[in-house]
């Protein structure tokens, strides 16, 4: 009985001991596999992506923005006040050089011509009569007195008309001055507003600079992400463009102010011209009256004296010459009622409609030459030495996306703008197709410099260390060598290597684990890239 009760316990104990032994053996096997796996990973070769260093042409470019403008703009303006009776073109119309585009009502000027023609005829008649009298040697004193009296009355009438004409011309010229002065005041307000906008943009830029500085400081302390710093830097760059735009608007507003000032000066000069013209005409009329009065006195004197008769004829000849001169001036003013285009181009502005009244000097049509256009941009001082006449450029227009246009630098201002510190450059674009229009917003890419670099690698191959820049080179036996390099020009993702790497050597662009100097590497399959020349 005792033996039978002990057997089951013995079997149970043996089973438990066997299970424990099996578990210990299994753990030893797992630990061994883990040690072998770690050793295998430790001894495995790092996988890398290689590239080949080689020669390449690096092209440095500068991207700028601007607007297209016409190289030649003509403004047809009225030379004398009047009503527009004929207007042959509208915005968008194509016109030819010499084409008559505007006519101003010539009624008043035709009357002035007729009056001067009558004056000339009268002066010639008096001269002919005096010559006939001198030839015959006989003259009736009474008839002479009557003729000279009529001449005095005619001269008095001419003087009265000249004085009335002076008052009308001066009133019109002074009204033009008042209008030009109002435009100058308005332009000054626009300049002040643009300067206020610029000051606000500068203040925002200063705030964004401070924000970027704080973000960089917080990034160093690990309080913000690198993306936050990048966002602050992007906002600062955008605000810089806003500041530049505000600066450009100031220049535009100041140019408009100067234009209005020039118009004001022209209006004031017109007053002076009107005054001088009126003084001249009144003086001529007074002289004619005085001359007629002198002739009357002479007619009353002894006409038998040949000397006096010859002087009279000389005076009458001078009167004929003066009358003919005034007739020529009146005809010239009549001819100025027809305005012709001096260039072939397209009408881009028509502020006046047919039937409107215009003043002297007022613009009626604006014509622009469009067979070629200019793109004016400001080049920073740092890049100005690389830009000259003939420099090639590529232009992309927002209005014509996807179709770049070729341009060349046609003009370079030798002096920098004292405010923006930029050189004004004008690039010429041919416009044979007629698709380009003044005012189109354009993106310009200038080719500044071309470098035939002997050794170029991808920027991913360059590592920055406390001791300088390094590049890892892999030889034919797949052994790595970390070399100190001297960097040259960087364009896009390419970097010029001045020393440390030779053309044709393979360099590590990307490694899946750190590569040490002298370590064997495993080039990734099919991952060998060359520098495109």
CATH fold node name of the domain at 140-302: Helix Hairpins
CATH-level-2 architecture of the domain at 140-302: Orthogonal Bundle
Terminal residue distance: 100 Å
**Percentage of residues in helical conformation:** 40-55%
The CATH class assignment of the domain at 140-302 is Mainly Alpha
Please tally the β strands and state the result: 22
What is the string of helix and strand elements?
Answer: HEEEEEEHHHHEEEEEHEEEEEEEEEEE
| Shape call | rod-shaped
Task: Give the helix tally.
Answer: 6
Structural class: alpha+beta
The description of the largest β-sheet is: 6 strands, mixed
The residue-averaged pLDDT reads 79
- Percent strand equals 25-35%
Low-confidence runs of at least 5 consecutive residues: none
The radius of gyration computed from the alpha-carbon positions, rounded to a whole number of angstroms, is 47 Å
3D structure, described in words:
This protein is α+β, with helices and mostly antiparallel strands. Among the domains are: 1-44; 47-56 and 452-530, conserved putative lor/sdh protein from methanococcus maripaludis s2 fold (Beta Barrel), CATH 2.40.420.20; 140-302, Helix Hairpins, CATH 1.10.287. Helices cover 49% and strands 29% of the residues. The protein has helices at 2-43, 107-136, 141-221, 226-300, 306-335, 381-384, and strands spanning 47-52, 54-69, 73-77, 82-87, 94-95, 100-104, 338-340, 345-349, 357-358, 363-368, 372-380, 392-397, 400-412, 422-430, 441-458, 462-465, 468-474, 480-484, 486-491, 494-499, 506-511, 522-530. The strands form 4 sheets. Strands 1, 16, 17, 18, 21 and 22 form a 6-stranded mixed β-sheet that branches. A hairpin with a 5-residue loop joins strand 17 and strand 18. Helix 3 packs antiparallel against helix 4 and helix 4 (226-300) runs antiparallel to helix 5 (306-335). It is rod-shaped, with a radius of gyration of 47 Å.
